[in-house]
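Provenance

Sequences were taken from public entries as deposited. Structures were produced by running a predictor on each sequence independently, with no templates supplied. The record for SMP-30/Gluconolactonase/LRE-like region domain-containing protein from Nostocoides australiense Ben110 is shown for reference.
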Amino acid sequence: MSRRSAPARSVLALLLTALTAFAVAAGAGPATGSASGSVSGSFSGEARAGSVTSYVAERIIGAPSFPGVAAWGLAYNPVSDELIVGDYVSRQVRRYTRGGIYLGDLRNAGKTIGGVASALGVDPRDGAIYVAVTGEGRSSLDVRKYDKEGNFLFDLDMPGAATWLTVDHDGNLWVPEGFSGSVVRKFTVDDATKSAQLQLLIDKAGPGTTLKVLTGAAADAAGNIYVADVGNKVIHSWTSTGEWRFDIGPDPIRGDLRGVAIDDELGRIYLSDAVYGGIRYWDMDGNYQGVISGLGLQDGEFTDGARQIAVTPDHHVYGADYGSFRVQEFLPDGTFVKVFPDPVMRPDPAGISQARGLNVDPVTGDVVTVDAFGQRANRYSAQGELLDQYGRRGSSPPEGMNYPKAVAVDPATRDLWVSSFEGPPGVVGYTFDFSSVVGRPNIPRWVGDLEFFGGKLYALERRPGAVRVIDPKNSKVERTWLTSVGLLHGLAVDPNNGNMWITHDFKPVMYVVTPAGRIIRTITLPGVGWGVAIKGDEVVVADTTTGYLDVVSRTTYAVKGKIGKGNGFGFGQLKTPSGLQFGPDGKLYVMEQVSSRVTVFAPGPAPAAETVRPVVKIDAGPMVTGGQIVLTGKATDASGIAFVEARVKDLATGRFYDGKAATYLATSTWSPGVVWGDLKAASWRYTVPATLPSRSYAVTIRATDRRGNISLLLNRTVAVP
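Predicted structure for SMP-30/Gluconolactonase/LRE-like region domain-containing protein:
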C-alpha cells in the first residue's frame, strides 16, 4: 500500500515543532514520555493532580474495517461450480461464481468461523467443504465441515495442527502437519458420528530425505497425494497407500512454498513458490514446464506470492492474492484473465482490522498504530484524523510487513520502529515519515512489544520469552535477558530506575525485573495483562480478562484501582486491550485488539448528565466510491460525540452488514464508523467494503454522545452501479 502524505502544517506549527524537538533533544524542555509508555515532567494541557484512576473515556480513534476478501484459502467446488475463498482477516469463507460474483458466506452459529480460515478442501463427490482453522484463542476445532450450500455440519479435532488440507476423489481428508510438524495424515470422515478416523500416517519420503515443514497439498484422480515441503524446497508425492513415488525440486523452487493444485486432464502439477512470487508447473512425471506470474503490485502479479491455488474444468488457474485482497485468474499459458472482486474492496483507510501495538509521538502527540491483519502502520492526530499510512503485506523492507504487532517512537529522533511478528522483515526502523529505513537488527522473530528507554530499544520476544536491548544507532544487540517464566506479553521500562515491568502471556501476573535481569517482584493481577504504561508512581496494565485497565502502585506493588467500564464494545468499555501509552498531553491511549480501535482516556470528570440528542448529518455528493458505499458527514453535541454508526441492509437479500464480523446477517446490526476532529463538532465516515454492483442498500445513520443519548435516524437508499 502506498504511503499517504500527511496534510501540510502551517509554518508556525512547523517552527513550534522544530523548537520543541530541539529543546527536548538538548534537555532544556519538559521531559517527554518514553516509548515504554512512561511519562515524567509536565506538559501544556496535562492534568497534574490526581490519580489516573479518575480517568474517563474521552474519544475513540479508528473503527473496525476489513477488506472485501483477504484471500488466503481457495478451492473449486465441482458440484456447485463455485470458487470458495477463505478470508484470513475476517475469519469468513466466501462463495463466488467463476465469474467473480460474490454469492455469500459459509454460515456459522456465531458470526465467524471461530478462528482464522486457512486452507480449504472440497469433496468432489458431494461438494462438502472442509476448512482448516488456526489462530490463537480460537473457539473452533481444527477442521470444520460444511455442506455444498455452506451450512455448518460439525468440526473435528485433529491429532496435530491443521493449516493445510485437501480432499481426494474418494472423499478422504488429507492433512499435512502444517508449519509445526513433519507428517501427513489421511482420514475418513464419518458424518453420522461427526468424527474422523486415521487411516494412514506418512512420516518418510525418499531415501535420505527427512520431512521438514509441510504446507500445501493436492490429490490427483488416481488418489496420489502431493505435498509441498518448505524446508526441503520440494513437492513430495506418495500413492494413496503411502508409498513414496518421487520428489519434485529443489531446482528451480525459491522457497516459502504454499498451495499445490493438480490438473489431471491437462497433466500438470502446480505450486505457489511465494519467494519467487509465481505459480510454477510441472508435467505429471515431475518435468519442469514453466511459471505463471511473479511478484508485483499490478494485475497479473502477486504482492507476496499466491497462497492456495485452484484449477477449474476449463484449465484456468486461480491464485489467492492475500496481500492485495483479491483472487487472480490466468489461462494455462500464463495469460492474465481478471481479478475479483473488481474493483478490489479495500478497508477504510482509517479503519483497523486487528489492533495490536500503539505509540505516541512525544513531539507532536500523534498516535501511531500497527494493524497486524491490515499489514500497515497508521499515524493519527490526537483528535483521530488519519495523517499518514505505510505498509503492505510483504517479507522485505521498506514497505513489506509481516503481521506487525509492535511499534515504538524513538524520543530522540522520532524514528519509528516496527516489529513484524511472524518473520521477515522482522524489526525495522524507519524515519518518522517512513521515507527511508534506518535500521534492521538481526534478532529472532516473535517480537510482540517494542519500547524505548535511555536511548535504547527494548524488544520483547513473546516466545520463548526474552528482552533484547538494542542500540538504534547501529542495530546491535547490547544485552539479552532470557526468562525462565515462559511466554511474555507486554513491557514498560521504569524511567526512574530502568526496571522492566513485564506481563505474562497467559497468567495473571506481572514481573518487575532489574536492568541486570533479576526478578524482584511478582505481582498478581485481576486478569491476564498485556500492555503496560507508567505515569509517575502509577503503573497501568491492560487487563485482557476483565476489560479494565488495572492500576498498580510503582512503589508498593499493590493493585490500587482500575480505569474503564469493563469488557464490552460500549463507550468506555474495552474488548481485549493490548498496547497502551500516555501521551505528552497526559492522556492515556489504549489499543483494543477485538474492538479494532483506540480508546482515549483523560482526567475526569465525565460530562454532566443531560438528555439532549446529538445531531448527525450526511454530506451531499456521491455515496459510492470504487464500487463501495462510502458515506461521510458531521455530528454535533455539547457533551461530545462517542460514536457514529451505520445500519446497512441489502434490499435484495434482506440481510444486514455487520462491520465487526465483515459478513451479512439476518438480524439488524449497527456498525461503528471512523470519527475524528472536535468532539463537539466531529467529522465521520463509514465504508461498506462488501457491496455488489446493480444492488441497492438501505443505509441508516445514527450518532451517540458521551452520555449515551442517540440522535434521530437518517435514512438513505444507495444504489451501487
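Residues 615-720 form a domain with the Immunoglobulin-like fold (CATH 2.60.40.10).
The radius of gyration is 26 Å.
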